[in-house]
Write a structure and sequence with these properties.
Number of domains: 1
Strand content: 35-45%
Order of helices and strands: HEEEEHEEHHHEEE
Structural class: alpha+beta
Shape: elongated
Low-confidence stretches: none
CATH class: Mainly Beta
Helix content: 25-40%
Largest sheet: 9 strands, antiparallel
Distance between the termini: 18 Å
Radius of gyration: 19 Å
CATH topology: Pnp Oxidase, Chain A
CATH architecture: Roll
Number of strands: 9
Number of helices: 5
Length: 192
Amino acid sequence: MTKDPFSTFDSWFAKARETELNDGNAMTIATADADGQPSARMVLLKGHGPDGFIFYTNKESRKASDIASNHKAAILFHWKSLRRQIRIEGSLSTVPDNVADAYFATRSRDSQLGAWASDQSRPLDSRATFESRFEEVRARFDGRDVPRPPYWSGYCLTPQRFEFWQDREHRLHERRIFVRDGDNWNEGMLYP
């Protein structure tokens, strides 16, 4: 490993993208609401670099509500086939509109339409209702581009802490941490 958490992440992530059978970019994001009630769910990493780690969602979802009241969060990548995981903690901010627009344009048409049809995280009386809404949206945008809904965007987690965990024999695992100190990173290790 290098002394730079981002290059270590890039190396591990590239390997996971090659070896994981499904969604090597899947990550758990843990948020907490204004009362401190935690909630975790899987999302897909859609961009990353020195500025942070990006995922997209409906801004009216439960996770977005949590983020609005508490911008601190944690993400976790677990790649069982590699016997590795990466934990990253930091704060979330909304990506600029042009970044969200550019990503939304790369999604499949049905995924774009689904973003319009879904009231994510809110009660749904039946699957038929959702399918009907999807067909209504499909007809509405027939023959033209599907714009990004105003309530759909991305969030970027700016990291303050990384932990790289590598499984080792006899549960003598290796845990390496990086903690942000201004523009630099302090590096250390933890007992397994």
